[in-house]
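Morning run. Coffee first, then this:
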Amino acid sequence: MTTTTFDTLAFAKRLMEAGFTERQAEAQVTVLREIVESELATKRDLRELELRLTAEMVKVNAETKADILKWVAGMLVAQAALIAALVKLL
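And here it is:
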């Protein structure tokens, strides 16, 4: 994950202007900075995730199509064998 810019000084000043003490503002800034730095995803993070998921979906889709084709081919062979056996019996 990439880091995001967070102006802690400006945030602390706004909190103190709103009536927080300096100690309260510093505690709020510390907690919020930790959350922003560790928990939030950036647009770049989301784009990278989207690309990885898209690639995985394409891979799974191709594998599924191949599996379906195998089953259909197998069923066609089985059907042909069944028809041939029925023709011999009649």
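The helical segments are 8-17, 22-39, 43-89. Good start to the day.
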